[in-house]
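Retro notes, structure queue

What went well: the backlog is down to a handful. What didn't: a couple of records were mislabeled last round, so from now on we paste the full input next to the output in the thread. Example, using Protease-4 from Spirosoma oryzae:
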Amino acid sequence: MLQFLKYVLATVVGLLLFSFVGFLLLIGVGAAFSSSSSKQTISDNAVLKIDLDKPVQERTTENPFKGFGTFGGPSDAIGLIDIKEALRHAKTDDKIKGIYLTAAMPQAGWASLEEIRNALIDFKTSKKFVYAYGETMTEKGYYLASVADKIYLNPAGDLEWNGLTAELTFFKGTLDKLNLKPEIFRVGEFKSAVEPFIRENMSEPNRLQYTSFLNSINDYTVLRIAQSRNLRVDSLKRYADNLTIREPSDALRTKLVTNVGYQDEIEGLMRKQLKLEEKKKINYVSLSKYQDSYDDSDSGNGSNRIAVIIASGDINSGKSGDNSIGSETIAEEIRKARLDDKVKAIVVRVNSGGGSALASDVMYREVELAKKAKPVIGSMSDYAASGGYYMLMGCNKIVAEPNTITGSIGVFSLLFNTETFFKDKLGVTFDRVNTNANADFPAATHEMSPFQKQVLQKQTERIYAQFTSKAAAGRKLPIDSLRAIAGGRVWTGTQGKALGLVDQLGGLDDAIKVAAQSAKLKAGDYRLKYQPRQKPFFEQLMSSFTDDQETRVQAQLGELAPYVKYLKKLKTLEGVQMRMPFEMEIQ
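Corresponding output:
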């Protein structure tokens, strides 16, 4: 009887699993079929509605379960490349009459915002309207909205205009309470990534570099807004100093916005532009729907290709993830592009504050090999600093936005002495037997000897010497000149160009143009090949469940979520590191 029940139970469980998997397959096949076999149809007299109050990443992650609730995962993130491509299509699409932009609190870096803003400016050359509306607007949101023909701010809302700030978090007090002793080995007085573990505030060199690059970004932002709104730079800076913009009427009086009004009022204005009756609905087209209305395959003709290799996230050895750069993956992509005769030039697009020194060097080597065969152009996104800069310093040319964060040419090693923590907090002790004097080197469960610490420091200095010498060779700078601007110091793209770290200011499109010119390719004679390829269906399915779980955990932790994420990142600090200051957020 028990044996019979066991078989019945096994059969029931098997049927349930089969049904569940079949259900997933049915959804996946249906979604894949619908996305591949049919395109969205856009009606005439449409308005492209762009909601940028979402995370912006380099590329949109394709998800066949998008729109299927729980199975969709966190599909809110939108791709920078996709946004610009949609704006490029809409510019010449007779069915699109204008853009309705909402960007109160965009979750993007300043360089990404710059590329989107420039794409909006280019769209306006079509003489189509761009209207922006916000119940509230942060400075990032207003930076995008400032190019609009009309900017409406809700009468009960507010516009943030008080300058930029960057706040760092320090954990020394926490480590002291836990009796965790950090062992730091670094080169460069500006290499501040280790400061959160050994200080309670910013060092003077770190404060100096933050003040410098933050003011560089702010000066550029204010200048661009002044040009778009026909305002004076000194007036805009005075408004920020004096907190002049306290309510919507202040924004209207100072001409930062064109109107104080509600959404129905800006929609009334759009109806006039579209020549619609008052009760007629506006034909809004979302960004995702519009992307499904045209063929977004690589443009151009012929067999020539420009490979665009996207590398975004922390740098580690192994395979790349959705938010990480794996040296194995990126090195392989560069190698394939080098060996592919159809690929005439390579663009390496980096959005990273750094990571593993070893992994960075592995990718650097492939860049060096590739540029012997064909032009290799570096494109910097929001960040291309420390290990991110290391990846690109061997390129034939480097292109960065004025507000890109780059440089940070420095090295550090970090270990935690956990002996006191385990003994005093957990009652755990350690003992050991060695065959040689330093068999237990490096150690995390007891104090290292002065000799062992000296070895680690010399190792760190050796890698720094390697970093600076290769950077000097790649940038064709005297080693003394390179080291004078290194030391771990962070620069903006504007500053980097003046110092010789960057060749040209611009975005990804500019880098692609440089690559085409270097390969003697004319417009239309080549197609773009974006790499690495997007994840296959089942990989996306599994990652969607993982990402959804992480989203729920973050929602439960609330304000503590960033700190937990920060501490989890400590697990990746293996070996010598080339990193920017952790979790730098400019607001």
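Agreed that this is the format going forward. Reviewer comment attached to the example: Residues 394 and 474 are 5 Å apart (CA to CA).
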